[in-house]
Each structure stands twice: as C-alpha cells, then as structure tokens.
Automatic annotation (TrEMBL), chain A:
Family according to the record: Belongs to the binding-protein-dependent transport system permease family. LivHM subfamily.
Pfam families: BPD_transp_2
Topology in membrane: Multi-pass membrane protein
InterPro entries (UniProt xref): ABC_transp_permease, BCAA_transport_permease
Superkingdom of the source species: Bacteria
UniProt record, GO biological process: D-alanine transmembrane transport; L-alanine transport; L-isoleucine import across plasma membrane
Keywords (A to Z) from UniProt: Amino-acid transport, Cell inner membrane, Cell membrane, Membrane, Transmembrane, Transmembrane helix, Transport
Protein's cellular compartments: Cell membrane
Protein's recorded name: Branched-chain amino acid ABC transporter permease
Transmembrane domains' residue ranges: 20-39, 46-62, 68-87, 99-120, 140-162, 198-217, 229-254, 260-281
Automatic annotation (TrEMBL), chain B:
InterPro entries on file: AAA+_ATPase, ABC_branched_ATPase_LivF/BraG, ABC_transporter-like_ATP-bd, ABC_transporter-like_CS, BCAA_Transport_ATP-bd_LivF, P-loop_NTPase
Protein name, as recorded: ABC transporter ATP-binding protein
Keywords in alphabetical order: Amino-acid transport, ATP-binding, Nucleotide-binding, Transport
A Pfam family recorded for this sequence: ABC_tran
Family classification: Belongs to the ABC transporter superfamily.
Upper classification of the organism: Bacteria, Bacillati, Bacillota, Clostridia, Christensenellales
GO molecular function, one term: ATP hydrolysis activity
Length: 295, 235
C-alpha cells in the first residue's frame, strides 16, 4: 500500500475512535437538551466526576467492566440528583435561569472533585492491554478497536431502549410535548430524571474511554467535554440523537485529520470552523430537522 | 355523581382565571361549557385533569377527592382530556399516537383491538396508520386526538375546543363523531366557543363568562334563552 494512504487510513481510524468517544458523550448531552431544551453546562463535570469514581473502582479488585458499569450507574445518579435539586425547581422559569443553575451545579461538582482528587493531572489507567494488531501492512491499536466497539454498542443499546421499549416510546412523546404526554398518563416526572440518568450513564462511559485513551484525567476535562459534546450536537443537529452521535464521530475525524495535515494548532479550532460553516448553510445542523415554531 | 367541583378557583400565571366554579357531571351525560375566548374554559379542564392546581376548592371524582393529583394519576382514575389544538405527537406515526393513548394499560391484545375499533370509526386513521401524525390535516388530527384520548378507556372524556380552527364542514364531521361516542355511553365534558354545536350535542350546559358561571341549564332550554342567543349564538 502507498505510505501516504496507510498514513491517511491510520489517521482516519484514530479519528473514528476519538469521534466514537465524543459521540457517546454527545448522545447523553443531546437527550438532555431535547427533553427540556436546556443547555446542560454541567454535563462534562457530571461525567468527569463519574470518571474519577471509575478510576477509584478500577484500582480495586473489581473486574474493569464492572468497575466502569458501577461508575456509570453512579454518574447517572449524580445527573439525576442535579436534575431533581437544581433544575426542576426552575423548570418553568425563564430559560436563562436553568442555564445559570447548570453553571452553578458544574462549579459545585468541579470543586468537590478538586477537593477529593486535587487540581493536577493524574495518570489514568488503561482498561485493556495495549496491543498492536497487524493487518497486512496495516496496524491497528487495540484501544482504537475498543472505542469504536463501545461507541457501536452504546448506540445500539440506546436504539433498543428508545425505539422498542414502552418507556422509550413514551420518552419520544415527552420530548415532543410534555403536557400532552402527561395527559396520556405518561409519568413525566419519572421520564425526565431517567433521561438525565442516561445522560450521566453514557457520559461516564465516554469519559472513561477518553481518559484511558489519553491516559490522563483532570477536573479541567469536564468543561472540555461539555464543549466537545456541544460541538458534536451542533454539528449533527441539536435535538437529534443520531445527529449528535454522527456529529461526534465527524468532530473526532475532523480534529484528527486537521492535526495530521494542517498542524496540531488546528485540532481544537477545526470543529468550530466547521460549525460556523454548517450553520451558515444548514441552521438545523447536518442531520437535524427543521422545527416548526408555533405562534 | 361522576364528577363534581366545589368552589374551584385557579390562577393562570398572575391572573385569576376561574372563580368559584361549582359544577357536576352525571354518568352518561354530555355536559358542555360554552363561553368566549379567555372565559376560563380551558383552565377548568386543566384543573380537573391535574395540569393546573387550584388555589381553592375541591375536585371530586366518583366520591373521592382528587384535587391536585398529578395528571398521570388522574388518567389512571378514568378521566381523559383531549387537549385544545389537538396536540398530536407530530413526529410519531398515527399508530404510535394511538398506542401512547393507551400508556396506562397493560392488556396488549385489547389495546390492538381498540385501535382496530377506532380505525373502523375513523377510517382515515387506518389509511394513514404509518404516516407521521404531523402530516394529517387539521380535521384528521382532531379525529386522531379524540381516538387517542379514548384509548385509555376513560369513564369521562373531556374535549377542549374540538372545533377550533376547523372548516365548518369538518366541524360537522367532528360533531358526528362526538355523537357516535355519546351513543357508546361515554360521559363527555365538552368545552366550546362554538355554542351552537355544543348545545346541540349536549344534555346540559354551563355558560362561563370572565371566569364565573353565568348561566346553567338544559341545553335545549339554553338554545332558546334570549341572553344566550344574543351573546353566543349570533342573535
């Protein structure tokens, strides 16, 4: 194979695995957004808290998958608690109010995390041994395969949940119209916390993947993750789950290719450049649907 | 007595929307609330269905005080509200909309049979089964909204302005359907600006004006009442 092509494919696979991790974070963020149209600024700080917990559990004698699962469940509980204590009391207020509440919740979580784990960067354990898999001329890292597989599994799990279960179908209705859903007998105040729970759950899984991929964790990665999730959701179309998922993958691929071909400085800016360009021509995002505004 | 309210007062935001509403519905009756836009009709329905909490008064359902219960519990108790402006789930299919109406039920087989039953009453719903509900016309959406509300097998169906925004010929279709539902023995509480239609289909009616009940009586008598004729029936 031509060395240029090998290099490109390698970068593409890197991009897909980074993108897969963004996608997992973004899907939770997008769900929470679409149910209450609220920017969840605490999303990143919630999942990084859970990712720290996963780190503690990974150091114990638990099998890694169980450690991550437990941390993800706990991340969901944090998200649910934030919804119950910080967002619900201001749900009917002007939409700026929940946004500020979210910032407040983010700061509280970040401060607590800082007290427990400190402000410095910590080496994050890898969850699988680093192997190089040889495919002809081509090498793939086991980490890459893992993150693509986890992203695939998450989107599959999510699809089964939302499309085929009764509660998932009800969630789709709550997303469309909260009041009418409650007139159908749908327990709205059970569904909304559940959506937050899922946001935290998927967030922690994405967070653990990212931290173990880069071998690092710090409290700063919370806000960083919120920005990535936001960018992914904007690219794909706010409020569209699969849009957010594909947006995450696209963001990862764009960043990796930009770093490889345009220089490392472009890595973090390329996503925003793409957002500006896409919003200019498709305000609803790449995969989003136009929303009719009621007057 | 199926439903009774005592001295219900409900605020809508800072505005006192209804004051001291005393009304009742007997089993098998069709009761109408007529009044102009903003008179408080929707507020009354929302107070009964639990979307709004009254500041004063009680709602009694089959002898039990249900004031302030959340909407999902009220649906389970047997009251189903078909909201103003239809509010079908536009992104879901017609069939999924009907399924959601049966959210409180667990009897899958019977749910399917009920859907088939309503598809017979409203043939358009069968034709458009797998289409997105948002693509239906206004009248079709109203039929879907009514069928969806019936899917919970309510003892009391509350219809909020079923004629709103529909062409006169479509309004007739909708009222034909309401007549059919009435014949099946469902108790109906109907709220309407279209006083003529509402009085024609109902047994009893209340006239509500600026949040208070101004008049009540048998519908056929209200149709002959001069004040009602003047204010609501166009002379």
């Amino acid at each position: 194979m031509h060395p240029e092509l090998v290099y490109f494919l390698k970068q593409l696979i890197n991009g897909l695995s980074v993108g897969g991790m963004y996608a997992v974070i973004a899907i939770g963020y997008s769900m929470v957004y679409s149910i209450l149209y609220m920017m969840n600024f605490a999303h990143g700080d919630i999942y990084i808290f859970g990712t720290f917990i996963a780190m503690a559990l990974l150091a114990s004698s638990l099998p890694p998958w169980l450690a991550i699962l437990l941390a993800a469940v706990f991340g969901g509980v944090i998200a649910m608690t934030v919804e119950r204590t910080v967002y619900r009391p201001v749900r009917h207020a002007n939409r700026i109010v929940p946004m500020i509440s979210a910032l407040g919740a983010a700061l509280v979580l970040r401060t607590v995390a800082q007290v427990i784990w400190g402000p410095q960067q910590i080496v994050y354990p890898s969850i699988i041994p680093e192997n190089v898999i040889q495919l002809g001329d081509f090498q793939i890292l086991s980490q890459n395969i893992l993150s693509i597989a986890v992203a695939g599994a998450c989107v599959l799990l999510f699809t089964i949940l939302i499309k085929f279960t009764k509660i998932g179908k009800a969630t789709q209705c709550v997303i469309q119209d909260i009041n009418t859903s409650s007139l159908m007998g749908i327990p709205v105040n059970t569904i909304i916390p559940m959506v937050y729970w899922l946001g935290g759950f998927f967030g922690v899984i994405g967070g653990v993947m990212i931290s173990s991929y880069y071998s690092v964790i710090s409290i700063e990665m919370g806000l960083w993750g919120t920005c990535k999730a936001w960018a992914a959701a904007q690219l794909g179309g706010v409020g569209s789950f699969y849009g957010a998922f594909l947006g995450g993958i696209l963001l990862g691929v764009l960043e990796t290719l930009a770093a490889a071909y345009l220089g490392a400085g472009f890595k973090d800016s390329i996503g925003y450049i793409a957002i500006v360009l896409i919003l200019l021509f498709r305000p609803q995002g790449l995969f989003g649907k136009k929303k009719a505004v009621k007057v | 007595m199926l439903l009774k309210t005592d001295n219900i007062c409900t605020n809508y935001g800072a505005v006192e929307a209804i004051r001291n509403i005393n009304m009742y519905v007997e089993e098998g009756e069709v009761v109408a609330f007529i009044g102009h836009n903003g008179a408080g009709k929707t507020t009354l329905l929302k107070t009964i269905s639990g979307l709004l909490r009254p500041v004063k008064g009680t709602v009694t359902w089959m002898g039990e005080n249900i004031t302030g219960r959340p909407p999902e519990k009220i649906v389970r108790a047997g009251i189903s509200q078909c909201p103003e402006g239809r509010q079908v789930f536009a992104e879901s299919t017609v069939y999924q909309n009907m399924e959601m109406g049966a959210y409180t039920r667990k009897d899958k087989q019977a749910i399917r049979e009920d859907i088939e039953k309503y598809e017979e009453i409203f043939p358009i719903l069968k034709e458009r089964r797998s289409q997105k509900a948002g693509l239906l016309s206004g009248g079709e959406q109203q039929m879907l909204a009514i069928a969806r509300s019936l899917m919970s097998r309510p003892k009391l169906l509350m219809l909020d302005e079923p004629s709103l925004g529909l062409a006169p010929v479509v309004v007739n279709d909708v009222y034909d359907v309401i007549q059919k539902i009435k014949q099946q023995g469902v108790t109906i509480l109907l709220v309407e600006q279209n006083a003529m239609k509402a009085l024609e289909v109902s047994d009893r009616a209340y006239v509500i004006s600026t949040g208070e009940i101004a008049l009540e009586g048998k519908s056929e008598e209200l149709l002959q009442n001069d004040a009602v004729k003047k204010a609501y029936l166009g002379g």
